[in-house]
Design goal:
- This protein is mostly beta strands and 66 residues long.
- The chain has one domain (6-64).
- Helices cover 0% and strands 59% of the residues.
- It is built from no helices and 6 strands.
- The protein has strands spanning 6-7, 15-16, 20-25, 28-33, 37-48, 54-64.
- The strands form 2 sheets. The chain has a 4-stranded antiparallel sheet, with no helix packed on it. Strands 1-2 form a two-stranded antiparallel sheet.
């Protein structure tokens, strides 16, 4: 669980969120975004946690939940 300000992805523009939760599920990273839904990451490059966390990934899919 961590607070991440900026998520940078390879094929999608920068997404800015207030608070998200990062949960590891085997080889799949699931990021749950409050009031928005969650982001499923299929292939992860690296995660940096230094003030503003940066996540670089190869592929991503976003599911919107109510």
């Amino acid at each position: 669980m961590a607070t991440i300000e900026v998520i940078r992805v390879t094929t999608i523009e920068v997404i800015q969120m207030a608070t998200i939760e990062v949960t590891r599920m085997g080889t799949i990273e699931v990021i749950r975004v409050a009031r928005i839904g969650f982001i499923r990451i299929a292939t992860i490059g690296f995660i940096r946690m230094a003030g503003i966390g940066v996540i670089r990934i190869a592929t991503i899919s976003v599911d919107i939940m109510d």
